[in-house]
Specification:
With 592 residues, this protein is of the alpha/beta class. It has 19 helices and twelve strands. The strands form three sheets. A six-stranded mixed β-sheet has the order 6-9-10-3-11-12, sandwiched between helices. It has a four-stranded antiparallel β-sheet with strand order 2-1-4-5, with helices on one face. Strands 7-8 form a two-stranded antiparallel ribbon.
Length: 592
């Protein structure tokens, strides 16, 4: 399965904005109560803003022109009370939506991170960590900004526009229709340009992810940069990524600001229509008749025209925020829509076999690459030591990764204990298989915390109890290498300890699990000869039922192996002896 998010983005089926919004709203379905309360508050605020012009128009016609100042004071008091209610409603909806936005951000980031935890190794091989970090941090923040700051403003402005439009048409249908007519052009303009605005924002978000990836890569490899004095190389790469981000940001900025001037122009045109047509109606109006159009009516009309077009101008900004949020959601939904291809199959039928592990007609290829292993068949028995040798790039680590089920074969089946390895739950499988990687990864913490990682048996042990368990597993000599024992500080970067010490911690972590299969992928590559002899003695003292799989280039580490397999050119061939393996390694011959 191809997990490349860039290719996935290119091939992703276009979905409607409404459909994307529905999927996003599903993440905050539990916030319905707060959303309804915020909506009620918004409608109250909108109602207050819509009733104000009517009262002002009535005050002008009934009290200001006749000189009835008591009436003016009464209307002013009513307006003050109304606007105070509107202020309180606006504050409440802002507070509620701020909480909804933050909780949605929390839920969304949790959902993305949990999904990333479920995806296989192949996904992380095909995508840059910096881009994934950008999706978790930056893209989700764009969505939070829209929900916490813009969504209810969006709804409120639509409510005010709708109400103002209704009042405009009710007061005078012809003048109302003429006033609203420019808005139709705004609707057409928005519909045509919205996909373009969304694309520009999507490209910009992608460039932000690319820049984050460059920063992450250069910082992770800073030692190499210093050692080879290639600051210029990474400076050039970052400059290119930064320029790309600058260019896409400019284009996104132009796209995001294109609506406002157009909406402002249309609002100005509407005001001219109200002014020209309204003065004309006042001039031909017959006083004290049902069709009379007074100065107060004209002022009310101006107020409602502003109430209609001012929200429209604000919607220009809110709409671009919405398009940016939807572009971010597209990038996030790409991750959320993925499923691991390392599924657990239901069939758990055990076949009678004297082998602990069996490869049956196994083929394997990395996504988008050539086939690495061709029709592999071999068996491994309990308690034996097996060595995988071969030239660099021959497929040794790939074979070991299939044994540990970091990947699944593209064809064929791998059996563990007579069962399809895919039928084991991850917890059960990892308890049976210990894997010491060529470049072990440690977490920031202590030696103890790293040894006990994902080991439920010893998680509540005190230091004394754990030291006793290490002694029973013949690992006390390795622990003695660390100055502060179990409390030795460890950094994930590895700067606090040597690479050899990292491998020793990984070794203790794997052996302490007492696995049925222990895979050592160049586990002694960075260890001195004396320590290597310690590891060799520990391996000899493992339970008789433990099967050891050793990948090594140094032949002295495999001389005591019970069986040696030569791995090269997609084939795994049993070598007759160590000398035979050496001859094959030197000659590079393929044997059919």
């Amino acid at each position: 399965m191809n997990y490349d998010l860039n290719k996935f983005s290119e091939q992703q089926e276009k979905t409607s904005t409404l459909g994307a919004l529905k999927r996003l709203l599903a993440l905050i379905a539990h916030e319905k109560k707060n959303l309804w309360l915020a909506l009620i508050a918004i409608l109250i605020n909108a109602g207050v803003n819509l009733m104000g012009p009517l009262l002002i128009g009535r005050a002008i016609d009934k009290y200001v022109i006749p000189g009835n100042y008591h009436g003016v004071l009464v209307i002013s008091g009513i307006l003050l009370a109304m606007y105070l209610c509107g202020l309180i409603a606006s504050y409440l909806q802002t507070k509620m939506m701020g909480g909804v936005g933050q909780r949605m951000l929390y839920t969304l980031r949790n959902a993305i991170f949990n999904k990333l935890q479920q995806l296989p190794v192949a996904f992380f091989n095909q995508n840059k960590a910096g881009d994934l970090i950008s999706r978790v941090n930056n893209d989700t923040d764009k969505i939070n900004t829209f929900f916490s700051q813009s969504l209810m403003q969006f709804v409120g402005n639509l409510s005010i526009m709708t109400g103002a439009g209704i009042f405009l048409l009710c007061i005078n249908f012809k003048l109302g229709a003429a006033t609203i007519a420019p808005a139709a052009f705004a609707l057409i303009f928005t519909k045509i340009l919205s996909p373009w605005v969304k694309r520009k924002n999507a490209v910009n978000l992608k460039s932000v992810g690319g820049m984050s990836a460059e920063i992450q890569e250069s910082l992770n490899n800073f030692k190499v940069i210093i050692a080879f004095n290639r600051r210029d190389y990474f400076r050039k790469r970052f400059d290119e990524a930064n320029k790309d981000n600058y260019t896409t940001s400019i284009k996104a900025g132009i796209a995001n600001n294109i609506f406002l001037p157009v909406y402002t122009l249309l609002a100005g045109a509407a005001q001219l229509i109200v002014l020209a047509y309204g003065i004309y109606l006042v001039s031909i109006s017959i006083p004290n008749t049902s069709d009379s159009f007074t100065i107060g009516s004209l002022i009310v009309y101006f107020s409602y025209a502003n109430s209609f077009y001012n929200p429209l101008r604000q919607l220009a900004t809110l709409w671009t925020s919405f398009q940016t949020a939807m572009a971010g959601w597209d990038r996030i939904s790409q991750i959320l829509s993925l499923d691991t291809n390392l599924v657990t199959v239901k069939e758990k039928v055990v076949t009678l076999s004297d082998s602990l592990l069996e490869f049956n007609n196994v083929h394997f290829a990395y996504p988008g690459g050539n086939e690495i292993l061709h029709n592999i068949n071999f068996k491994m028995e309990r308690g034996k030591t097996y060595a995988l040798v071969g030239p660099t790039g021959g497929g040794k680590t790939t074979t070991a990764s299939l044994i540990a089920r970091l990947y699944d074969p593209t064809e064929g089946t791998i059996f563990l204990g007579g069962r399809d390895i895919r039928s084991y739950e991850p917890e059960e499988r990892t308890q049976k298989i210990g894997f010491i990687l060529q470049e072990p990864f440690l977490f920031t913490g202590t030696v103890k915390e790293n040894i006990l990682y994902s080991n439920e048996i010893y998680k509540d042990y005190s230091n004394e109890e754990l030291e006793k368990a290490l002694k029973e597993s013949n690992l006390e000599s390795l622990l003695a290498i660390f100055e502060n024992g179990l409390e030795t500080k460890v950094l994930s970067s590895g700067d606090s300890i040597s690479l050899g010490q990292k491998q020793l911690i990984a070794f203790m972590r794997a052996v302490l699990r007492n696995p049925e299969i222990l895979i050592l992928d160049e586990a002694t590559a960075n260890i001195d000869t004396i320590t290597e002899q310690l590891l060799s003695d520990i391996l000899k003292k493992l339970p008789e039922t433990t099967t050891r799989v050793i990948i090594a280039h140094r032949l002295n580490t495999i001389e005591n192996a019970d069986e040696i397999y030569f791995v090269n050119s997609g084939e795994v061939i049993r070598a007759g002896s160590l000398d035979d393996a050496i001859d094959r390694l030197l000659s590079g011959k393929r044997v059919s």
